[in-house]
């Protein structure tokens, strides 16, 4: 079994139409627009955030630039080739020993449905299964978020489980869907 190539320090990652970069202070307005939008937050673990909350989140996540230990995460901005903020990706190292990580994505509504999330996720999965040497990457999401479920399918992730009424969230019991892909499955697709 190969070892995970850690530590890994973030650097910009390029796709054909997108670039993943570290969050920066100039992202505050579009990040706030995204994280304060009730429609965007509907299936997320948090309620729409205030501007002050987003200021704190930006300060925290802009500094998350190294993967070394379980629990370390990256939250890069998704940008188009002109540098315009489209949304964010999420990658958390779940286990170094088991070589697993969690992936996620959020896009501003005006940039949804154009393939940006798929391209950005592909860039991160290439990193995960290439340079980092991970074995398994998974996504946990609300199965009512049909756009994210469809994205998991397009990425080649399989549904591994559906946890009924898994958590009390935003005043209701919500289900959690679990989707994953293995390094050999990703390699076969690429």
Automatic annotation (TrEMBL):
A single Gene Ontology MF term assigned here is: protein-N-terminal-alanine acetyltransferase activity
Q: Which UniProt keywords apply?
A: Transferase
Mention any Pfam family matching this sequence: Acetyltransf_3
Which ranges carry the N-acetyltransferase domain? 18-188
**Superkingdom:** Bacteria
User: Which InterPro entries does this one have?
Assistant: Acyl_CoA_acyltransferase, GNAT_dom, Ribosomal_N-acetyltransferase
One GO cellular component term noted in the UniProt record for this chain: cytoplasm
Q: Does the keyword Transport apply?
A: no
Protein name in the entry = GNAT family N-acetyltransferase
> Organism, per UniProt?
Microbacterium saccharophilum
